[in-house]
Amino acid sequence: MLVFLHTSPVHIATFDGLRDRLAPGLAIRHVVREDLLAAALCQGGINSAVEAQTFSAFSEIVGGGTGALVCTCSTLGPLAEIFDRDSPVPVMRIDRPMADSAVLQASHIAVCAALSTALSSAVALVRSSAADIERPGVTVHEHLFAGAWKFFERGDMEAYHREVARGLRGAALTADLILLAQASMQGAAAYCPELTVPIWSSPETGFRAALALIDHKENI
User: Residue 203's closest CA among 3, 20, 37, 18?
Assistant: First the structure.
C-alpha cells in the first residue's frame, strides 16, 4: 500500500486521480496533518521541535502494511529523506524525481513557490540534485509569490492559481524550465498557456517514482 502524507486535504483528489489513471485498483491511503506545516510556518522553518513532531508522524504511518510513504509537502520534504535512512520501508519526498529530471534537461531553472519555507527547501533540493548528477553549470533562479498564499488559505484555488500564473510569466523570462515547488501549484499552468517554457509540477513524476518503490507496474 502507498501512503501519502499531506499537509492539506486539497491534495487527496489529485493523487486519487493519478492512482485511477496510472494504477487502477492500487490500495492507497491519505494522512492529512495540517498541523505539521502550521508548526513549521510558526517556527519560520524546520527546527528540532518540528523535526520531532514530523518524525513521530512518519513513525506512526510506516507500520501496518505500508509499502512506501510519500511526503507531498515541500517544506517537510527534507525530513522525509532523513527519516528514510533508517526507515523499515521507503520514505520519499514527492519532488525529488522532478528535481533529478530537471537538472538533466535544463541549465537555467526557475524554482517557484508561494511559501518561503517551500522555496528554500526546493532550491536546496535542485542544487543537491545537480551536485549528485554532477551538473555544476545549473543555475537556479528563486521566485517567491507570497501574495498567492492567502488565496490558498481561503480555499480559493482559482484565485491562487491565477496569482501564481501571474508570477510565472516573469519567471519564464530568465529560465528554460520552471519548477513549481509546491504540489498545490500545478493548476497554475492552465492560466498561462501562452508560455513556451516547460512548467513542471511534482505530483505525477512523484507518483510514478512511488509506484517503482513498491514494484507496481503502471497501467500503460
Answer: 18
pLDDT in tens, 152-207: 999 999 999 999 999 999 999 999 999 999 999 999 999 999 999 999 999 999 99
CATH of domain 96-201: 3.40.50.1860
Architecture per CATH, 2-94+204-213: 3-Layer(aba) Sandwich (3.40)
Contacts of 42 (CB under 8 A, 6+ apart): none
| Residue whose C-alpha is closest to residue 89's, from 183, 6, 210 | 210
Q: Distance (Å, rounded) from C-alpha 207 to C-alpha 184?
A: 15
Query: Where do the CATH 3.40.50.1860 domains begin and end in the chain?
Result: 96-201
Q: Which is it for the CA torsion 150, 34, 186, 172, positive or negative?
A: positive
pTM more than 0.90: yes
Torsion, Cα 103 98 73 143, to 10 degrees, reads 50
> Alpha helices of 133-197 — where are they, by DSSP H?
149-154, 157-171
